DNA sequence: GTGAAAGCGCTAACAT
DNA sequence: ATGTTAGCGCTTTCAC
């Protein structure tokens, strides 16, 4: 364990050449005589020289690193996004650095600030205001954002939540459901789209929609709100949740309360998290292509970095994934 | 969107003072006359100056950032570790940077190398060889490792997997199970401990243990291996899985095959992931304190960074979390 | 209190 | 093919 790491200078001196030579050679910017190259190589190996990336980045202005800010690393939707982005980044020779912004929403801007200085670009999922987003834009780094902004104009990606909501509602109506409620999470940027789609569909069938609002998109909130939703007079025959986590919690509690799913109440969510398949009954969900969103975000980032043109606003298609919680039939293979 | 960010120099010039003054003031290293301070403040606000952390870090040698390498961000165990570490880091004024090493095990060393150059310390969860770990140690950054190493001497943390295994086995024996198998994941550093604990307990009861090995610690592997385990002659009456994910997959498939859990076969796992509570039947698990591990790792890192003494090797106590998959009774509140 | 000047470790013209 | 020389933006003695 070295205390003072060897510098380019040390290598140059030991190899009897100039720092410029060592620098160029090590960066593959230029070839040198075999003798020189060999000497440099051996010296590097000998003294265990490793370039100081900080100094290097300072000059080149490049870190070969992309920052990804996610809301909650415990949420499978976000981890899937990260997985997708990571894969693309690695293939392109970039490293992904993540920060989890949930634990400290107050410091989110500061966190992004810190992150932005260490990376070449930022991929952000956030609930912050458009004003704050403007601040982030002013950090001056290429930016890819999840979700559509009203005022700010930037590269962004989203899933067609409205269509997803419509699909889900249509499916439930087809199953004979008449009294459908939406268990939402209004703090999220996506909530509005989803409920709008559901509402639009129901309206077209002459049905009305009642909505509840969760404080957090967690299973525990689904559990908490279940009795409120199910133990009033004429309980709903279907519940569409803002996400799968809420739905999973809701299902558990509903079953504890003695309801049969989907017989007494059908339940569905959004995100198609892996666990949707493993709960009982398995959960019908709208696949929003979480991983695909991550991949796409990273691809757009690479476009931005390379100065290639990239579509400003991309919408991914949702897909209904039918399972037992709304069908009662054997789920599709 | 600024192209060239303003520098300390710009601030100094605009404020009519020297760069040294601005630097010292902004870092709170020294007080100046009210007039000067006010001018600097207003100039900074005006031109939107932000310190270049790269340049700063280059000199101070500090980044106020800790790198965390995790095996798979999709695994709830690891995300919990991250959550715990993140909380402690933020409270101490540090930022956490994560990398997911799964996608590219071949490049893991390189990834850690890249990461190590940008952070003050490294917290690592890895399956790499002790030789490779030596290389990481030579990066010269403070290091906290999850898991005990045989040769390398470094600050590390682990859960008492052996005790956890013993507890689980004892519990199943108490429930009357006689034919217990272990569905392991031998590539993991923890697998050996867990099976050892299980084996030790069974041996003390004159029972033998059969073991299977998964290729990955995922639910899909649990599903895949289920028929192999359950459809031979005299199937086991209890299956202890390396982790909850395997157990969840196994349970789903076992139920598809017509087995009742825990009546026909009891199932248990390790990690106590959030979803263990939401599957049916709910899954008995050994709580390894994932979040606590993350917190502790970060605390040790802070000790290291501050030059405080810290226990070299810490073992966290496991706790059996009893649920329906092994008890048949109503689960504990 | 305030500033001049010397670097941190590296890259990038521009020589030679 | 190799070296010289400026910095990058910042901190930090050490003067005044």
Automatic annotation (TrEMBL), chains A, B:
Residues 6-60 form the HTH lacI-type domain. SMART domains: HTH_LACI. Gene3D superfamilies: 3.40.50.2300, lambda repressor-like DNA-binding domains. It comes from the Bacteria. InterPro entries: HTH_LacI, LacI/GalR-like_sensor, Lambda_DNA-bd_dom_sf, Peripla_BP_I. One of its GO terms (molecular function) is transcription cis-regulatory region binding. SUPFAM superfamilies: lambda repressor-like DNA-binding domains, Periplasmic binding protein-like I. Keywords: DNA-binding, Transcription, Transcription regulation. This is LacI family transcriptional regulator. It comes from Noviherbaspirillum saxi.
């Amino acid at each position: 364990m070295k205390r003072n790491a060897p510098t380019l200078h040390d290598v140059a001196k030991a190899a009897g050449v100039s720092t410029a030579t060592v620098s160029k050679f090590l960066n593959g910017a230029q070839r040198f005589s075999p003798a020189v190259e060999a000497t440099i190589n051996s010296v590097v190996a000998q003294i265990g020289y490793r370039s100081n990336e900080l100094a290097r980045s300072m000059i080149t202005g490049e870190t070969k690193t992309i920052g990804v800010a996610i809301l909650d690393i415990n949420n499978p939707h976000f981890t899937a996004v990260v997985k997708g982005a990571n894969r693309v980044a690695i293939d392109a020779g970039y490293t992904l650095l993540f920060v989890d912004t949930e634990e400290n929403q107050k410091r989110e801007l500061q966190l992004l600030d810190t992150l932005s200085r260490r990376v070449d670009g930022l991929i952000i999922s956030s609930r912050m205001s458009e004003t704050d987003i403007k601040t982030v834009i002013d950090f001056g780094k290429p930016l890819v954002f999840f979700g559509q902004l009203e005022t700010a104009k930037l590269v962004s990606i989203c899933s067609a939540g409205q269509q997803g909501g419509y699909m889900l509602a249509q499916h439930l109506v087809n199953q004979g459901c008449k009294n459908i409620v939406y268990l939402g999470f209004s703090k999220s940027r996506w909530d509005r789209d989803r409920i709008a789609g559901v509402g639009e569909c129901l309206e077209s069938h002459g049905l009305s929609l009642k909505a509840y609002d969760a404080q957090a998109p967690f299973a525990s909130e689904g559990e908490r709100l279940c009795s409120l939703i199910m133990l009033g007079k004429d309980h709903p025959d279907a519940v569409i949740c803002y996400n799968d986590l809420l739905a999973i919690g809701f299902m558990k509690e509903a079953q504890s309360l003695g309801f049969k799913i989907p017989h007494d109440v059908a339940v569905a969510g959004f995100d198609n998290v892996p666990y949707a398949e493993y709960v009982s009954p398995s959960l019908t969900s709208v696949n929003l292509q979480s991983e695909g969103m991550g991949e796409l975000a990273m691809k757009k980032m690479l476009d931005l970095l390379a100065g290639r043109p990239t579509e400003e606003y991309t919408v991914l298609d949702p897909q209904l994934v039918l399972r037992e919680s709304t069908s009662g039939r054997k789920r599709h293979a």
